[in-house]
Structures are given as C-alpha cells and as structure tokens.
Amino acid sequence: MKIKELFSSADKWTQGATARTADEIVVPYVSPAAVKFCLLGSILKCYPTRNREDAMGPILGKVQNEIKMNLMDFNDLPTTTFETVKALVEKLDI
Fold it and tell me: Is residue 60 within 8 Å of residue 74, measured between CB atoms?
C-alpha cells in the first residue's frame, strides 16, 4: 500500500504522534489498533522492511527534498493540514 492510499481521508492522518487509535490514544505504528498516522508513521507502515533504511532512505529523501525541512517538524506545524500532506504524497507518488 502506498501512503496516498493510506491517507484516503483526513481521519487517517495525525499530528504530534507517530500513530493513534480512532479514540486519539497514542500507540506504536505497528499496533493493530493504529488507524491514524503522521507522515513518518505512514512511511514506516507502508514501507516495512527488515532494514528500514533500505526502504525509508529513498522515500525520506524524496520527502525531505520536497519540503526542505525535518519531516516530523513539517508534519506537526500548525499550518500543515491533511490537504497539504495528501498533496505531497500524491505529487511524490508514495
């Protein structure tokens, strides 16, 4: 699954945590109860591998080159919206 598919609606994205339950409880991104993910959490969920850097490196590089700042800082900015993140992952086809 690509991130753009995971982020099918605004209720699948979160700020301030890697992942949350539907009730907004912070959980690890690998938790079966996780249904909302930040940008980093979505990368971890959608591109799993034994060696995370193998999968994440190219994806993180694409994102960092586009946003020109720390990924988590970008995700958690008050001005970052679901629409902003969705447009980014659509543009990058991730």
Answer: no
Cα separation, 57 vs 44, in Å, equals 11
pLDDT tens, 57-72?
A: 788 889 999 999 999 9
Per-residue pLDDT reduced to its tens digit, 12-23: 999 999 999 999
**Residue extents of the structural domains in the chain:** 3-92
Dist. CA 74–CA 41, nearest whole Å: 13
**Cβ atoms within 10 Å, residue 76:** 15
Global confidence as pTM = 0.90
